[in-house]
Amino acid sequence: MKIRDLGEFPFLRRLRERLPHANHDPRIRLGVGDDCAVLSLPGLTVLTTDAMIAGVHFQCEWAPFFVLGQKAFAVNASDVAAMGGEPAFALLSLGVPQDSAVEDLDAFFDGFLDAAQRMRTTLIGGNMSAAPVLMISVSLLGQTPHGSISRSGAHVEDEVYVTGTLGDAALGLRILTEELAGDAESAAVRHLKQRFLCPTARVTVGKELAAQDLATAMIDVSDGLLQDLGHLCEASQVGAVVEAHTLPLSKGYRTFLGAQDWALALAGGEDYELLFSAPVTARPRIQDIADRSGCAITRIGSLVPQADGVTVRLPDGPRAASEFTGFNHFAQSRP
Question: What are the two backbone dihedrals, phi and then psi, of residue 62, each rounded to the nearest 5 degrees?
Answer without folding.
Answer: -75, -30
